[in-house]
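W.,

You were right to be curious about this one. When I first looked at the sequence I had no strong expectations either way, so I just let the prediction run and decided to look at it fresh. Below is the sequence, 276 residues in total, followed by the output.
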Amino acid sequence: MIVFLPAKASQGQVIPLPPISQQDVSWSTAEREYFSDIWKNPIVTNVAEPSITHFAPTAEKATGTAVIICPGGGLYALSIESEGTQVAQWLADHGVHAFVLKYRLIPTGEEAISEMQQPGSGLYEKADKVLPLATEDALNAIQHVRENAAHFGVDPQKIGIIGFSAGGAVTMSTTYQYDEATRPNFIGPIYAWMNVVAELGVPDDAPPMFAMCATDDPLQLAPASVKLYQDWIEAGKSAELHMYAQGGHGFGMKKQDLPSDHWIERLHEWMGTQGF
């Protein structure tokens, strides 16, 4: 069920999304936003109540295009700034309505990243339980924006989704499972973590894809991005791939004095060539 919020959205407005399935996952620690000394990033953990935060362009710049942004963080956390709000602000500054998705995460204690890095943490088993919930949240976000497109000033046929690392897993899981109401018009798996995604085949009406990764990604995610590109073109679908020699993992909007610093400009150019 989609909740309609009548108030006009403004930059930074938080819009709750009702969780659909709880399954056997429960959260005993409250949602927390803090600076991770381990990741050197602001992060959010223990998301139990999904939401989208709307960053709206000015009326003069608005193109009618919208993007749902899924930050990464191994499904244990959200890298909320460099893969979330900073991406949204850049897109809004360039005329795109951006919605940062807080999707449900693996329940943890106060120090999620430490737990994630412990030997025997059971990451994949936990991810198997939570990724379906995060995927529901992403599908719900697309449907919410589409059903309220006039309210937001969005073209209902120009709604895309992009995601980083685990957010890329959410993006692709969403792509393999959408229906008519939740189909994204374009997708952007950014150094997507595909090990946790059950590949269900390229949809018959697969949206155009913009894929990006760095060859030197220490998690060795580059081959998965190449495979996504190959899958799309072999199915006769539109796809563009950017593979940077250097960049590492999890860089998002961070500046490293590398060509990969400019990936978002390439994304914006690609959106233009696709009519978005």
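Here's what jumped out at me. Residues 129 and 221 are 22 Å apart (CA to CA). And, maybe more interesting for your project: Confidence is low (pLDDT under 50) at residues 1-10.

Coffee later to discuss?

I.
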